[in-house]
Structure formats: C-alpha cells, structure tokens
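> agent: user asked for a holo structure of the chain below bound to nicotinamide-adenine-dinucleotide. Plan: (1) validate sequence alphabet, (2) canonicalize SMILES, (3) run complex prediction with ligand conditioning, (4) return tokens. Step 1... ok. Step 2... ok. Step 3 dispatched.
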Amino acid sequence: MKQIRVGVLGLGQGRSHLRAFQLLEGSCVVAVCDQNSALATRVAHEFNVATCHPHFEAMLEDRNIDLIVVATPDHLHGQHAIQALEAGKHVLSEIPMATTLEECERIIQLTDRSGLKYHMGNQVRYAFCLRDVQALIQSGDLGDVFYGEGEYLHEMEDIVGHREADHWRIHPQTPQTTLLGGGPHAIDTLRWLMGVRFVEVQAYHAAQLSRWQTIHTTVALFKTSNGGIAKVTVSYGMKRPYCLYYAVYGSDGSFERTRDQGGSVEDTTNYLYHSKLSGARRMVPVTVPNWNNPRLQRQHALGHGTMEIEQAQHFLRAIQEDSEPAIGPREAARSIAAGICALASADQGGGQVRIPEFLD
Ligand SMILES: NC(=O)c1ccc[n+]([C@@H]2O[C@H](COP(=O)([O-])OP(=O)(O)OC[C@H]3O[C@@H](n4cnc5c(N)ncnc54)[C@H](O)[C@@H]3O)[C@@H](O)[C@H]2O)c1
C-alpha cells in the first residue's frame, strides 16, 4: 500500500504528530515548516526530516506531500486547513478546527467537493480509560442518556509561564480562549461519550482574569439533540493538578471519572453504577490504564502517551480505505460550533445561542 507522505506545519505540539507518523508503517514525514526558522532547522535535523520549508506557501506547492498536519496557533487553523485542502492535501488539524462558523463551513465544502480527508485531532477520543466506556454507553448500557459533564482544568503556568509577552496564547489580540483552546477536549469528548449533538447553549465567564489579563474560566450549559443537558467547564486558573473529567448519567446507570488522575502511564479509576447491580450502595471503582494503551506504551512514548499514535493510525486508515474519519469535518464542526456559540454567549454576559447542527 502507498505510504502517505506527511508535512508538519508548526513545530511545538506538531512534533508529537511528527513522531506519531514516523512510528507508523503507512506513513513517512517528508517535510516540516515553522516561521521560526531556527526551530524548523533544529527539528528537521533532530528527527531526520529531509525538507525544511521556509514558509507555508512553499509547503503547499510541494508535490511530495499528501497530508499536512496543522499545528499552528488556534486562530490560524481554519485558514491553514483551507489553504492545504485547496492545494489538494489531506489535513490533520490540531484543535480547534477553526474559530469561525464560516471557516468550518468552508472546510466541509472543500472536502465534499474534493474527496480529500480532514480529521480534527482530539486525541482524547483515543484515551484508553475512555474507549470501552464510550462503547458501553453507545451500546445502550446506561439507558437513555440525559446528563453529562466535561471539564478541562489546566493551570497554564507550565505552558505559558516562560513565554514572551507577545506569545499567541496570551497576546491581547489572539489569546487562547477557554472553550476553543483546551475546551474541545471537554466538548468534543463529552459529545462523543454521550452520543449527542449540542443544539443550544448558555455560557458565562468568571470576571477574574489571569495575570496576563486573559479570561481563564468559563462554564457552558448545553441542550442536547436527545432532549438532555450537559455542562462543560474550562479553567486555566484553578490551582490544582491537570484534569480531564467526564461524567455521563443515563436511565439505567452512571459513569464518573476520578478528578485525581495522575500521569498518562499511571493507572486511574473510573466509577460505574448500574441499576442491575441491585445490592450496590457505592459506585463501582474500575482501575484502568490512564491515557496510554499498554500494548503500545512499552514500544513508544510521546507527549500525550500513545493517543496521538492511535489517532494518526486511524486517520491513515481512513485515507487508505476512503472511509469517513472519526472526527471528520462535520463531526469536528458540531463540536467547534458548540464552542464558538458558547463563547458568543459568554462574551455577551450569557443568553441562549442556537448551535448549527451540521447534519450529514
Ligand atoms: N491536542 C493537544 O493536546 C494539544 C497540546 C498542545 C497544543 N495543542 C494545540 O496545538 C497548537 C499549537 O500549540 P503549541 O503549544 O505547539 O504552540 P507553540 O507556540 O509552541 O507552537 C506553534 C508554532 O507555530 C509556529 N507558527 C505560527 N504561525 C505560523 C505560520 N504562519 N507559519 C508557520 N509556522 C507558524 C510558531 O512559530 C510556533 O513554533 C495550538 O492550536 C494548541 O492549542 C494541542
């Protein structure tokens, strides 16, 4: 089978995708690009990548590239994905898909027209501790799902503390927003666990700001397509260890993750309850590997464990087999539109906002 030739744009988090595609048999990384040319040269050398493009336009013209990984700052993803698709490349984009509804629609149009594949990289859908739970919920095990919670709690000092004042994450014109920054890990993963679309939202920001004067905490309440409700909290301000928390409640049972999670290679606890367990007085603790798939963990370890490897593997298969990727353009847009509309609500101090559904 033909190897997919990958180019990586943006070499911070982009390096995790670079390593993932290098480790897989169906792909090779042929080029990198970053506007920081010293970084690009260093990464190309360290990872033994043949071509280092001086700017994105040169990468777009490179006929040796089949797939571009977009790992630039949040506000550039939509534009970069659109340019890559227009140049005839498949796209794996970091979260968020885009920051406007128009860009989401354009990406859908371009993939519909061209047959090119697009995948939004929410690697949390590949977390070992969640995959079986999601399958259980989708099989109807918890009954009619009526409520869910998703939280992305990440005190950003480790990421931003050492940055220059003009870094995009804290720049007054392009600050990383809560719901489109880490938020898609909460919104998209919760939607996937619940098996619903989010159709309406009302949201609020905390008035307290970070030391960079950016909004650090937002709560959104969603109505779901099956008549249920969901709550998403994103905070970069909480003084606590990193946490991705999910809970799902149905007519026959409940799932709650622990908020005391540990590192990607550690074990963690999920809590389950089912009405068929008639004598149960406590949630049932299930100890599972955290983010890493233990079968892959021994061979390869990346920034977020093995999740990016499994995501890249899935996307390669979708390209090779011409099938719809798990977080293809419509599925990505359902989550990112929910974030865009929630931010619109919170930015105006609350109030209901209808979310476009991006039906198939
Ligand atoms: N999925 C995850 O868990 C996860 C983790 C970290 C970051 N991210 C996402 O990855 C993206 C990048 O974040 P980061 O932490 O790597 O940021 P970063 O600032 O470390 O890296 C971004 C890189 O993009 C380069 N860049 C910016 N504009 C460019 C352009 N026009 N052309 C070429 N290069 C350009 C910058 O020079 C920089 O090296 C963000 O969207 C972020 O939200 C996702």
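> agent: step 4 complete. Summary for user: DSSP finds eleven helices and 15 strands in the chain. The chain has a mean pLDDT of 94.
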